[in-house]
Design goal:
By secondary structure, the protein is α/β, with parallel strands linked by helices. The protein has 2 domains: 3-179 and 223-245, Rossmann fold (3-Layer(aba) Sandwich); 182-219 and 249-316, UDP-galactose 4-epimerase, domain 1 (Alpha-Beta Complex). The chain is built from 10 helices and 13 strands. Helix 1 (12-23) packs across helix 7 and helix 4 (87-107) packs parallel to helix 5. The longest helix has 21 residues, at 87-107. 47% of the residues are buried.
C-alpha cells in the first residue's frame, strides 16, 4: 500500500485532500495543530503536533513517504491577512514550518513535496484594474505582493525550488486562487469571502454588510476542482515550476452577494462598510495548467456556492 503524509490535514483543503487520498487507496498520516473542525478526519493516523518544532516533523516523517503534501501555514481571510496585525506571526510561523519540513524530507530522502502557495504572491501593480489583471505565472517578478503573507509564500516557493536544484528533489508548487466549499471556516475572522457571504446571507433578513464598495473582483475555485488539480499536478513528472490552480471566472463581491442571495431566495440591501480589502482585482490565468494537465478547473460558481450555502445554513441551524 502506498503512503501519503498531509501536513495541515486539519485545515479545509487538507482535510478534503486526505479524503481523496484514502479514496485512491493510500495509507494516510495527517498532521496539524487541531483535528478538522467541521467533520471527522479520514486519515489512518492523525497526529496533533506543532510543525514549527523540528522534533515534531522528525516524529511524523521518520521515513520516506510516497507522497507528501505541505499545506500547513498560518493563514486566513482578508480580515486576518490584510489587517497587518498578524504579519510577524504569519511570516515567522510559516517559514519555520517549511524549513523544518524540507530539512527532514531531504534527510529521509523524500523525492517530492507538493507545496501549496497562493495567488497572493502576485504583484499588487498587476491587480488594480479588473480589465487588465495579470496573474501569468511568470508575472510574479518584479515582486510586489500586497501582504506579508504573499511575501512569505514567495520566499517559501524559492526555498522549495532551491531544494530541487541543490538536492535533486522534484517539488511541485501550486498557487491557489480563493478555494471554497463545505467543511471550511465560515466565521471567526479567518473565513474567506464565499463562506463569509453565505453566512451573512443565511443570517440576514433585510440587509448585508459588505467591506468596501463591493467592486473588488476575484475568482473562486470549488474545493473538488482544487483537489483534483492538486493531485494531478503533483503526480505528473514533466513540470516543476509554480503553477496556478484557480478559476478564470471573475466576479465582483457585489455580484457574489447577488448569486448567494438568489440561491437563498432572499432580497437584501447591501450596506457598504469600511474593512480590509486586499488588491482590487485578482483572477487565475490557466493557460499553463491547461497545457501541463490538459484541462482547466470548472467554473460553475453557482453549483459550488449552492453546496457551500446549504452546508453553512445547516451549521447555523444546529
Amino acid at each position: 500500500m502506498k503512503t501519503a503524509l498531509v501536513l495541515g490535514a486539519g485545515g479545509f483543503i487538507g482535510s478534503h485532500l486526505v479524503k481523496r487520498l484514502k479514496e485512491d487507496g493510500f495509507w494516510v498520516r495527517g498532521v496539524d495543530l487541531k483535528h478538522p473542525e467541521h467533520w471527522e478526519t479520514y486519515a489512518d493516523d492523525f497526529v496533533i503536533g506543532d510543525l514549527r518544532d523540528p522534533s515534531v516533523i522528525e516524529k511524523v516523517m521518520p521515513i520516506r513517504f510516497d507522497e507528501v503534501y505541505q499545506l500547513a501555514a498560518d493563514m486566513g481571510g482578508a480580515g486576518y491577512i490584510n489587517s497587518g496585525d498578524n504579519d510577524a506571526e504569519v511570516m515567522g510561523n510559516s517559514i519555520l514550518i517549511n524549513v523544518n519540513v524540507l530539512k527532514q524530507a531531504e534527510k529521509v530522502r523524500v523525492k517530492s513535496i507538493f507545496f501549496s502557495s497562493t495567488a497572493c504572491v502576485y504583484p499588487e501593480y498587476n491587480q488594480m484594474d479588473p480589465g487588465s489583471i495579470n496573474t501569468r505565472e511568470d508575472s510574479v517578478y518584479p515582486a510586489a505582493p500586497d501582504t506579508e503573507y504573499g511575501w512569505e509564500k514567495l520566499f517559501s516557493e524559492r526555498l522549495y525550488l532551491a531544494y530541487n536544484r541543490n538536492y535533486g528533489m522534484k517539488n511541485k508548487i501550486a498557487r491557489y486562487h480563493n478555494v471554497y466549499g463545505p467543511y471550511g471556516t465560515w466565521d471567526g475572522g479567518k473565513e474567506k469571502a464565499p463562506a463569509a457571504i453565505c453566512r451573512k446571507v443565511a443570517k440576514a433578513t433585510d440587509e448585508i454588510e459588505i467591506w468596501g464598495d463591493g467592486n473588488q473582483h476575484r475568482s473562486f475555485l470549488y474545493i473538488d476542482e482544487c483537489i483534483k488539480a492538486t493531485v494531478d499536478f503533483y503526480r505528473q513528472d514533466k513540470y516543476f515550476e509554480p503553477i496556478n490552480i484557480g478559476s478564470e471566472r471573475n466576479v465582483s463581491i457585489n455580484e457574489l452577494v447577488d448569486i448567494v442571495c438568489e440561491i437563498a431566495g432572499k432580497k437584501l440591501t447591501k450596506k457598504h462598510v469600511p474593512g480590509p480589502l486586499g488588491v482590487h482585482a485578482r483572477t487565475s490565468h490557466n493557460e499553463l495548467i491547461t497545457s501541463v494537465l490538459g484541462y482547466a478547473p470548472d467554473e460553475n460558481l453557482e453549483y459550488g456556492l449552492t453546496q457551500t450555502y446549504q452546508w453553512i445554513q445547516g451549521e447555523l441551524n444546529k
